[in-house]
Amino acid sequence: MDISERFWHASLEELKRGYIEDNNAFVCLLDGKIVEKGIVYPVEGLFYEAERYMGVYIEKTYGSVFSYLLRMDKKLTGLTDHQKRLLELFYEGLNDSEIKEAAGIGSTSTIRNHRFALKEKERQAKVFLTIMELLKEKDSGATTFIEPHKTARMLDDRYNVTEAEREKLLNKYFPDGTDGQLTTFAIKEKAKFVVLREISKRFDAGRVYTEKEINEIIKTVYEDYVTIRRYLIDYGFLDRKEDGSAYWLKA
Q: Would you list the DSSP string of 107-118?
């Protein structure tokens, strides 16, 4: 199971803390980092057991799970930039008057209205999640869809892919298996998503690559490595520094 699949299948409590327990380790839901149990981890002169260290790691790397989630794309959070900014200020524990000054909002009553609207959104989300959980118990004929990667830069019809469609497309474009060569990249956008998703599995989470290393890995898949590299970035699978000196798999 890849990082995004773990993320989308995690419970609410697991998402809140940012990691899951998996056999003899804890796995970060934000970037896939694995922390083994039974090992003491040093941080700035202090020593932490595995689970506590995972919390420290998330805090130092992302600030908080809250901050990480707010940075996710609007298509995944359903939040506007204005709502995200207000939530940041609420999270800091500021009162309405302080938020009015920090956000440049005209009155505290406007902020109260925003608080009410967000609470209403929360209630709706709880009801909808309950409906969907109850539906799962009865909808035995439901189609299984591929989970979108949580760093997707767009969510449209190209992500409307079932598991059966994924298998069919991979068999078509990777006739020698997904460890082999891609036959062509002159394909529809939906197929591009499936193919790029598979190619992204050739990169290790947490590792920083040079452009040359990225190119060499892509060459094992397809000769036009420049096009594949560009699409991996456009689709949100890879990220890079502006000068192209470093690339990494987006969490």
A: -HHHHHHHHHHH
